[in-house]
Amino acid sequence: MITVAILTLSDKGSRGEREDLGGPAIKEIIRTINADVRYYEIIPDEKELIKAKLIEYSNSVDLIITTGGTGLSPRDVTPDATREVIDREIPGIAETMRMEGLGKTKRAMLSRAVAGVRGKTLIINLPGSPKAVKEGLGAIMDVIPHAVEKIKGSTDDCAAPEGCRS
Q1: Most Cβ neighbours (<10 Å): which of 39, 63, 92, 156?
Q2: How does residue 166 score in pLDDT terms, banded at 50, 70 and 90?
Q3: Residues 6 or more apart in contact with residue 90 via CB below 8 angstroms
Q4: Following DSSP, what letter does each residue of 31-65 receive, concatenated?
Q5: What tens digit of pLDDT does each residue of 101-132 get?
Q6: Are 8 and 21 in contact (CB under 8 A)?
Q7: Contact criterion met (CB below 8 Å) for 77 and 10
């Protein structure tokens, strides 16, 4: 079972002025990989707070998925905070999500979402829109269990026909 933290970044959502629809969409989608959501939180778009939460959660879960704060407005700092706490970036995850989005709207190219590893935790940024969450997460869901397994130290030989079938 993959343990998960969902972190929604929204000034209005954290003040109760807007309903979070991205977080619930993530919860629904990750059920397909038998994930256990241990944490779900809505916080404002504050870089230092985001970094602190990513560090805190990375000490106790396998996967952190953020939603919101990946665009171009001055308060969109999620990718910046993520880059400051990860040990290694995984560009293919974010690139795949953007490519999926580009099939629906040219605005997908404006996403600054990143993905990476901190310690033994996979961190993935998603946009705040529930539609973009569903499209982006849907494009990468089948590789998340394999990525988590490898991050945790699996030494299965992925090149062998019988290896790495997740």
Answers
A1: 63
A2: very low
A3: 115, 116, 117, 122, 147
A4: GGGTEEEEEEEEE-S-HHHHHHHHHHHHTT-SEEE
A5: 999 999 999 999 999 999 999 999 999 999 99
A6: no
A7: no
∠ CA 43-119-63, rounded to 5°: 50
% residues pLDDT > 90 (the chain): 91
Read off the pTM. Answer: 0.93
Shortest CA distance to 53 belongs to which of 78, 33, 27, 70? 78
Give the amino acid at 114. Answer: V
Q: What are phi and psi of 44, to 5 degrees?
A: -70, 165
Third-level CATH fold of 2-151: Molybdenum Cofactor Biosythetic Enzyme; Chain A (3.40.980)
Side chain identity at 70, as an amino acid letter? T
